[in-house]
Write a structure and sequence with these properties.
The complex is a heterodimer.
Chain A (H helix, E strand, L loop, with lengths): L2 E4 L3 E4 L4 E5 L13 H9 L7 E7 L7 E7 L5 E5 L7 H12 L39
Antiparallel strand pairs in A: 1-2, 3-4, 4-5, 5-6
Chain B lengths: L21 E7 L3 H14 L4 E4 L15 E2 L6 H20 L11 E5 L2 H16 L5 E3 L1 H7 L15 E5 L3 E2 L2 H14 L3 E3 L4 E7 L2 E7 L2 E10 L5 H8 L6 E12 L7 E4 L4 E5 L4 E8 L11 H14 L8 E11 L6 E4 L5 E5 L5 H18 L13 H4 L14
Parallel strand pairs in B: 1-2, 1-11, 2-8, 4-13, 11-18
Antiparallel strand pairs in B: 3-7, 4-6, 5-6, 9-10, 10-11, 12-15, 12-16, 13-14, 14-15, 17-18
The chains are: A alpha+beta, B alpha/beta.
Amino acid sequence: MLLISCPNCGSRDETEFHYGGQAHVPYPENPNELNDREWAEFLFYRDNTKGVFAERWLHSTGCRQWFNMLRDTVSYDIQAVYPMGTPRPAAAAAAAESGTASLAADSTTTGSAGPSTSATSIAETSTNASSTTAPEGATK
Amino acid sequence: MSADLLPEHPDFLWRNPEPKSSYDAVIVGGGGHGLATAYYLAKNHGMTNIVVLEKGWLAGGNMARNTTIIRSNYLWDESAAIYEHALKLWEILPEELEYDFLFSQRGVMNLAHTLGDVRESIRRVGANKLNGVDAEWLEPDQVKELCPILNISDNIRYPVMGATYQPRAGIAKHDHVAWAFARKCDELGVDIIQNCEVTGFLKDGNRVVGVKTNRGTINTEKVGLCAAGHSSVLAEMAGFRLPIQSHPLQALVSELHEPVHPTVVMSNHVHVYVSQAHKGELVMGAGVDSYNGYGQRGSFHVIENQMAAAVELFPIFARAHVLRTWGGIVDTTLDASPIVGTTPVENMFVNCGWGTGGFKGTPAAGLTFAHTIATGAPHKLNKPFALERFETGALIDEHGAAAVAH
């Protein structure tokens, strides 16, 4: 079971949370201009990263607030928790690139006793004003 | 069960050749679907200069991690057609493959626990009958008659209000199914290469012309992807996306018991499904983790919920011990139906998205996918399951019949 560090409530069991899928997927800016292919992309296509993945979670039985999280989909290590509307932390984004392309044997032996809940304040890397008002890529 | 009743040891069932530099077709993934595809390519289409590449050991992925249930009681015409065709193939395959993989048509019950369940179930029985699939609606006392260890009391949280029943459904011994296909593939000249991981694809423009592996490059005219949970990782290497999300799905077995469980019982509502293996283990399936994962292990609370449901439905299970738990990685689509067909890359084909129901579909997946690879065109049974349905909107929404919520 994941131990998730809610930005408002602190570390709680996974059972208190609801998974919300990939983060940073903006609603189309001009929906009327989308063709069927582009609608299919928006509705049905999401990244399925093997490695570090940016995803949304809802603390449904706690503060009922959404937040974003960087989590490794192989080791299940939680690398960052950051507010909705702020960009994906840059350092971990680079790690995701290598993780995505990897077809290495599934590493179920990460050696850690449980998921890391450190780096919960990576949000401070988002200092520019625009990034706090709209999700990354919202101006499609 | 004594050893003389079991089929031959797998070491002697197929060769382990070195990969050649070129094949007419490369199948990526040496699980049930990959092996069945290679078998039907050779048998039905005469393509014998082909290879199955497996990054681990033969059938060691989802093929070794499922709960072995075979049924065809799906709601929609498209699904009923492909799964019922699979069931008909299961019925003849032991003889055709000359290998007894212990296919046991002991029937499957899908329990209903709410008035909504009851209505949906009776509707599905009607739909099944119209599609030529054997199906019956059972009242609680008939459920009890078929499976005496089930608790049909009114005083439990989710009482059994009835069940759908498919008598021709059942289980098979999954590893022996894989060995049966592998043995026949080998006889027909198909190369099976284990410990061979695909690391990339060679393309000429938009056409795939080869596969890069950790054991060298293999030139080929056609590539079929049968990698289940890793399909989107392979697709990304090839330069296209799939509408797939990979989730861990857990299962467990008990220690061995005397025969107590005569049929297969599934419940989508309280989320447990149980059968008793030929040797005597109680085999139980749990749910998927809500989050994406490739770790082949899942969350403990999913198992905990499953066990609570199992003990309420089957009070005698409270005395059973869990022997082991494990996870498989299922590739799910948003309509809970598979994707079998062409891809945006020319000469590359994909068979994926079977979610939690891939094992039962193995022979039909192989047969139709082989047709698509050999001819470049869809088989009539896999045509509705093309990737294009996510653009056209012709989805096949089988969440209600999928047995595992995902």
